[in-house]
Amino acid sequence: MSRSVPAQTKTAETPIAIQLSGVSVEMSGHRVLSEVDLEVKKGEFVAIIGPSGGGKSTLLRMVAGLLQTNTGQVRVLGQPAMVFQDYRLLPWRTVEQNIQLPIELTRRGKIETHLGMKPYQNLYPHQLSGGMKARVAIARALAQDAEVLLMDEPFAALDALVRERFNLELKQLHQRTGKTIVFVTHSIREAVYLADRVVVLTGGKIETILDTRDEGRLTAFTDGLEAELRERLGVADSTFIEPPPAPLRPPWELFGVLGLTSLFFLAWSLLASRVPVFVPAPGAVWNATVANAGVLLQNTLSTLQTAGLGIFCSLAIGLPLGYAMGRKRALERLLSPFIAALQAVPTIIVAPLLIIWFGYGLGSKITVTALVSIFPVLVSAMVGVREVDRAYREVFQTIGATGWGVFRKLEVPGALPVILGGLRLTVSLALIGAVVAEFVFGGSGLGYMANSERLNFNYANSFAAVGVTVLLGIGLYGMVAWLEGYVLRYRRR
User: Fold this and answer.
1) At residue 426, does pLDDT exceed 50?
2) Is there a domain that residue 238 lies in?
3) Cα separation, 458 vs 438, whole angstroms
4) Other CB atoms within 10 Å distance of the CB of residue 386
5) Distance from C-alpha of 217 to C-alpha of 192, rounded to nearest angstrom
6) Alpha-carbon torsion 171, 174, 180, 181, what sign?
């Protein structure tokens, strides 16, 4: 079992781009390929055809380096580029960015063609039709500037007319670039029209290889009744999907928020009328807020400082640790009991130790805030990394991306939706942690102000501090929601 790059050549006149010698592949005890011998010359177009389950895609994945052989040798000229059947365009990158991906990852290659997608370069994959996605996937593979191009049924999902148009364009592309192409298909007409040779693969074995150079035809473009229908239908091409405008918020949402807010203040007023000593009326709290605006602002900044530094510590520790646990399940099994135990320990029990270690100052408050808020960051990073689709990892593998390239271009953007969702909870917990720390350690902040004013029986001032804390929490949550919407704008329908 071996894989060599570059491929050997028979003579200077007939270089070999792909050479399979006695290749066999087994999966789950089932032999998928058996003693396959095949040579593909440089610049040749070879189609592989056969029934489903015959080993066509397995052979292609083996040439791409995504599978290893059990026996035999695979020799390929350079790192092949691959066009997958489902295209595998990165949803967070535009058309132009998807095409540029191989160049960014390897610092090699060039954009040879946009295949007519230049006017749509700023669209995201969810805005493209199947035909447009196929064009982007092929353009991305061509940008890799590889000698060998592997194509796994790239036109299978397209309608008949668009598929025939693409066949014609692919044939012209092959003639223009001279690349070595191995093309898997179920269509006999497609195989004969496109290929110089057709490999018939059944039961994991090559049954026969037919020379089909200049034998095929696209009858819908050339002759007979199909040609007349083709002329009447016009040139088949792909279109893009115009995203609908953002829907207007239904009136009941606004009225619902106003209604619930009114009910809350009504209930508050009723409660204040029954126990006026301990529950100040909304008007009294508003007057206290206005009267103590300067003090409230100073304490708000103090709480924001504690919460912000706590969030920073949670991200600095939780993200790399969660990433490592997501990549290595053994590390998760090792650390999970300790993390769960630390999360279950009440802060009030840890506080005396923190006073001994860090005193009553900012260090203790930040530690409490980080302990309270780190768990969502850690778990979301771990889950987010695992949620990155294996299919996209194979794309990066065929491009030849480094580990750093996979991390920057795939794992980080792929895990962001989950991480940002966890960050919503993190900022809320960080604010709670900051207020609790101010209760315990004193000093300054909204938590300290609410507690000290309560002890002095200034309940209106205490409620004012609580109200500002609530508004602060809503503001922090809204900021993260806005950030999530901006970063993940590619997901808008």
Assistant:
1) yes
2) no
3) 18
4) 14
5) 8
6) negative
